[in-house]
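Thread: quick sanity check before group meeting

JM: Hey all, I'm pulling together slides for Thursday and realized we never actually wrote out the predicted structure for the chain we discussed last week. Dropping the sequence here so it's in one place. If anyone has concerns about the input, flag it before I start.
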Amino acid sequence: MRLIIDTREQTPYGFEGYDVQTERGTLPTGDYSLAGFEDRVAIERKSLDDLIGCLSHDRERFEKELCRAKALDFFSVVIEAPLSNILASRFRSRMTVNAAVETIAAFSTRYRTPFLFCGNRAGGERMTYSLLAKYGHNILRAARLFEKGNRHDNLSFAE
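JM (edit): ok, ran it. Output follows.
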């Protein structure tokens, strides 16, 4: 599996110990994608402080990205922190806990985007790998079904 890491990603995952090759490239949306499927799947990585910034002062820019992501088969925001850090107000912002939680809930439902709290950076890296690997697996599965003549027009690649 070959992953594309956006050239604007400032602290990219190394994916050491994972069976992947990586290359830098410009992605239209998100920080990580599968080579050849950049217009169909993407993962956006966020530290907790970056997420809070996107929910508050960078909200307009972030909502534009979420709006673009609706065109993808699958898009997710992977957060390198536990939800409990938001609930305990362990972030640098004037944003309230309630405003942060409610904005995440609103964005999740409005843009059909899961926000996955992965505990820490290693958890975020693992989840990013797993999401992209599962998407790739489902693409191959769909191709095999198609080749066997079991064409399903409603087959979802994001299952």
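AS: nice. Residues 121-147 form the longest helix (27 residues). Helices lie at 48-55, 59-69, 83-87, 97-110, 121-147.
JM: adding both to the slides.
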